[in-house]
Specification:
- The chain has one domain.
- The mean pLDDT is about 95.
- The chain is of the alpha+beta class.
- The protein has a 4-stranded mixed β-sheet with strand order 3-4-5-12.
């Protein structure tokens, strides 16, 4: 099990979830090619892929996170919208929460070159103050292309009121805010339904 960090009263894993097996030890399909990825979508097959930039980072499709075999260890879950809102509130609100969640290494988030002076100051003072240490893995599109590499983090967030309409927590290079998008907001600037994409997972501990 990965190490944990405490942010306020919440316990989160210190890194993104990256298992390649279900809880019954059966393997999850690792879809490397665009064709493999698209076929998994068409066949509604659980699948994951390894980041092209960070070998320890993976992205999971909708079928993987909802598979009855289970993807997470006992006592942990994908955060809900209320979990993420509580996190953002603890960090002082959405305006600067992104700064506090993102890793500060400039070789990871290459944003310092175009940050304004006040933004650069806030990054030096607030950067990764939560210990969340998010890195810009991006996302994977239904056609198999990776998108947002190097400049965005995107995390699955569950919607307990409408389980088939998830949210996404987005952190973007050069943007200080943490952005929590619902299905409609995400799909308004995308070509495909939200459940056809793949995103990172950060687990929260049950309380």
């Amino acid at each position: 099990m990965q190490n944990n960090i405490q942010i306020g009263t919440q316990i989160w894993t210190s890194k993104n979830w990256n298992t390649k097996t279900f809880n019954n030890s059966e393997s999850i399909l690792v879809a490397k090619s665009r064709g493999d990825w698209y076929n998994a979508l068409v066949n509604e097959q659980p699948a994951m892929c390894v980041s092209l930039d960070y070998p320890d980072e993976v992205l999971y499709n909708w079928f993987a996170i909802n598979d009855e075999r289970g993807l997470f260890p006992e006592g942990y879950r994908i955060p809900s919208t209320s979990d993420v809102n509580k996190l953002i509130d603890y960090l002082g609100g959405t305006e600067y929460a992104g700064v506090k969640l993102k890793a500060t290494d400039e070789s990871i988030w290459e944003e310092c070159a175009f940050l304004k002076q006040d933004e650069r100051y806030r990054k030096s003072k607030l950067g990764n103050s939560s210990g969340f240490n998010a890195v810009p893995v991006g996302l994977r599109r239904p056609n198999g292309w990776f998108q947002g590499r190097i400049f965005s983090s995107n995390f699955w967030v569950m919607n307990n009121d409408s389980p088939d309409r998830p949210y996404i927590l987005r952190l973007i290079e050069g943007v200080e805010a943490a952005i929590l998008e619902n299905t409609e907001q995400f799909e308004s600037h995308r070509d495909f339904p939200i459940t056809q994409y793949a995103f990172s997972i950060r687990l929260i501990k049950n309380t």
